């Protein structure tokens, strides 16, 4: 009897392990669904964002995550001028990524203002604002598919020349040309078969 049950037990164990490995992805999906719902609620801006001409002004910006009693940002103010490069430097958890996430309004500041050329970002529609911002997260969101598939999610890849240009623009042209399957190469879950830099560049494309 025990021997007869062994295959069933082994199959249940494998199923449990497989389900456990997918928990992070389910949690990630739930987070993005919640984020989408929040975005829809916050998408109240009516003005169309056309271009960034002069400066971005962070003015007394504060933010606290729900799980913490301590604000990660407290009255932060600075100016980013067009035509300059700016580095945010600080220890882990100091709020650098949180600040960057506020520019395309992936999260909203709870106090203070973020102004682009004197106009608060909350006055812009989310689509028009985000369409003008190039954003690469620390951990890129890539699909377990080909390089071409991941690019085609944000671009119309009509021909090989378009694909080559997109890859060249982000510094992946030579790398992809050296692959046996070129843009049809499978990259694995979350870009597992790519280096960290290559995954970020692909997300940027």
The fraction of residues assigned to DSSP E strands is 5-15%
Q: What integer is the average pLDDT?
A: 79
Largest sheet: 4 strands, antiparallel
Q: Report the helical percentage.
A: 40-55%
The chain-level structural class is alpha+beta
SSE series: HEEHEEHHHHH
- pLDDT under 50 segments (min length 5)? none
Shape: globular
Number of DSSP-assigned strands: 4
Q: What order do the strands of the largest sheet run in, or round the barrel if closed?
A: 2-1-3-4
Number of helices: 7
User: Whole-Å distance between the termini?
Assistant: 57 Å
Radius of gyration: 22 Å
Keywords:
205 residues; alpha+beta; four-stranded antiparallel β-sheet; 40% helix; 13% strand; globular
Description of the molecule:
The protein has a 4-stranded antiparallel beta sheet with strand order 2-1-3-4, covered by helices on one side. The model has no long low-confidence stretch (mean pLDDT 79). Helices cover 40% and strands 13% of the residues. A hairpin with a 2-residue loop joins strand 3 and strand 4.
Set out the fold topology:
Blueprint: H1 2-42, E1 55-63, E2 73-81, H2 96-102, E3 111-116, E4 119-120, H3 126-130, H4 147-152, H5 160-169, H6 173-177, H7 196-204
Antiparallel strand pairs: 1-2, 1-3, 3-4
State the gist of this model.
With 205 residues, the chain is α+β, with helices and mostly antiparallel strands. It has helices at 2-42, 96-102, 126-130, 147-152, 160-169, 173-177, 196-204; strands at 55-63, 73-81, 111-116, 119-120. It is globular.
């Amino acid at each position: 009897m025990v021997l007869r049950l062994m295959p069933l037990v082994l199959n249940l164990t494998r199923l449990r392990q497989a389900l456990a490995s997918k928990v992070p992805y389910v949690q990630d999906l739930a987070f993005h669904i919640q984020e989408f719902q929040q975005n829809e609620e916050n998408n109240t801006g009516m003005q169309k964002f056309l271009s960034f001409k002069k400066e971005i002004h962070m003015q007394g910006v504060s933010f606290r995550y729900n799980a913490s009693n301590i604000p990660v940002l407290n009255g932060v103010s600075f100016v980013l001028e067009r035509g300059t490069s700016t580095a945010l430097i600080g220890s882990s958890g100091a709020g650098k990524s949180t600040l960057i996430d506020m520019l395309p309004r992936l999260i909203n500041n709870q106090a203070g203002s973020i102004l682009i050329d004197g106009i608060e970002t909350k006055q812009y529609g989310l689509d028009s604002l985000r369409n003008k911002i190039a954003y690469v997260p620390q951990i890129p969101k890539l699909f377990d598919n080909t390089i071409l598939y991941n690019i085609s999610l944000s671009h119309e890849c009509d021909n090989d020349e378009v694909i080559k240009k997109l890859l060249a623009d982000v510094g992946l042209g030579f790398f992809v040309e050296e692959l046996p399957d070129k843009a049809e190469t499978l990259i694995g879950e979350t870009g597992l078969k790519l280096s960290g830099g290559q995954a970020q560049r692909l997300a940027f494309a």
